[in-house]
Amino acid sequence: MPDQQIVQANQQSSRRIPELLKKAGQPTGAAACLVVAADAYIIERNDATSVIAGYPWFTDWGRDAMISLPGLFLATGRASEAVGVLATFANASKDGLIPNRFPDESVTPEYNTVDASLWFIYAWWKYGQYTGDWQFCAQLWPTVRSIIDGYRLGTQFNIHVNERGLVCAAAEGFQLTWMDAKVGDWVVTPRRGYPVEVNALWYNALCCAAQVGRNIDPQFADRCVEWAKQTRLSFVATFWLSDAGYLADLINQNGKVDTSLRPNQLLALSLPFPLLAGEQARQVLYAVWKHLLTPMGLRSLSPTHPDYHPYYQGNQLKRDAAYHQGTVWAWLIGPFITAYRYAYGRNTNTANISRRLLAPLLDHLTSAGLGHISEVFMADTPHKACGCFAQAWSVAELLRLWAEEFQGEPLELPDAIMG
Fold it and tell me: Which of 52, 105, 159, 182 is a good FRET partner for 59, with 20 to 30 A between their CA atoms?
């Protein structure tokens, strides 16, 4: 790059960083670093705002964008830009589904996802909670209603709600949940049937729609209340493993229970409308803490499982075989800490413990992709960073925690818990 262009780029950066920090309320330390990092993932696609899932090889994915929206936009004072993201995906919705991703090489979106649309309703509700801009939320109501109707009546990829109010996704040959590794025709973790986190998201989508829809579409909102009640009753009865003390990861269409210990069940505790409480919630946290928690995030599968892969390395086949079969995901620390503080109380003790749990990831800002959080880490020690060196939802979930669990206070550890 010519010297003049370098100078101009540096000047633009020096002006932009203070602007970003001002919007976010002038954070310092690690929080300031995360606020600046967030800016790298916010893009314009055909004059519309979107989110790049990660660098160096991801494009914009619906699921990643919606999970990331509260942290990247709402926690950083950029809610006006969140409007563009929600509108971008709402405008591309089809048959009750928002796009799974916008491919770089094509203008045609791909829709093979069961959870992205439910995450859309979560992000839409979060936007309203942060901003109070219910007028914009009302503009997106047709998309929200089309999602709920699409799931209830059945849509693409054999996504439908059964007579007990639970969501099934059963299309052969497709990777529909966030555990979406696929090599050729091999879907590594197919999870066909009733995935636990999808049903937690479905329940939350109904609750969010019922709450916001009271002043927009009261009759439909009332129906959402009734559907949510049915889903709640069926959820616990279906997924709770009383002998194990945690939730099943999947129930297939034939009723076979997948008892694999995975982090997906945390969404039944961490989403705005939890499905478990009390001792059941604490049992889930104990199991996840004992088997899945690492300094860099959560393992995607318990080390006690025969399919557990301790290392994410080798060729694409070997990497994808390990991708959701043990590999640690940084973004999952967000649901874990929110679930932990829900189950054990939002008090000084849980806040201090949560800060301690975040410390290794904050230290990671100075390694790998400098100023960013990596996508994944090796499942076994020393938990080496791998995958993308900069991942949107890894950064975003730390920002969401900063805003929602620590009320925007500095993320540096107090002396009392430096240990």
Answer: 159
**DSSP letters along 339-401, please?**
HHHHHH-SSHHHHHHHHHHHHHHHHGGGSSSTTS--SEE-SSTT--EES-SEEHHHHHHHHHH
In a domain, 100, yes or no: yes
Domain span at residue 111 reads 36-417
Which pair of tokens denotes residue 217?
A: 């579409």
How many structural domains compose the chain?
1
Answer whether residue 24 is part of any domain. Answer: no
Query: In this structure, what CATH number is given to the domain that contains residue 121?
Result: 1.50.10.10
3-state secondary structure of 154: coil
Percent of the chain exceeding pLDDT 70 equals: 94
Distance (Å, rounded) from C-alpha 341 to C-alpha 357? Answer: 12
pLDDT at 145: 98
250-251, strands of its sheet edge to edge: 194-195, 250-251, 257-258
More confident residue, 151 or 14: 151
Write the CB contacts of 32 (distance below 8 Å, at least 6 apart in sequence): 21, 24
Residues 30-48 have a mean pLDDT of 93
What's the mean pLDDT when you consider all of the chain?
A: 94
Sequence-distant (≥ 6) Cβ neighbours of residue 296 within 8 angstroms: 328, 330, 360, 361, 364, 377, 383, 385
Q: What is the pLDDT at residue 414?
A: 45
List Cβ neighbours of 112 (8 Å cut-off, separation of 6 or more): 100, 157, 171, 174, 175, 176
DSSP 173: T
> Which residue matches tokens 């839409």?
124
132 by DSSP, 3-state: which?
A: coil
Nearby residues of 321 by Cβ (< 8 Å), 6 or more positions away:
181, 183, 188, 309
| 349 alpha carbon, distance to own chain's centre | 26
Is there a domain that residue 28 lies in? no
Burial class (CB in 10 A: 0-12, 13-18, 19+), 419: exposed
Mean pLDDT of 287-310: 98
Contact 89, 66 (CB under 8 A): yes
More confident residue, 367 or 272: 272
DSSP state for residue 237 in the 8-state scheme: H
Residue in the block written with tokens 């960013």: 372
What residues are paired with 194 via a beta bridge?
A: 251
- What is the C-alpha separation between 33 and 42, in angstroms, rounded? 16
For β-strands 101-102 and 257-258, DSSP reports them as: unpaired
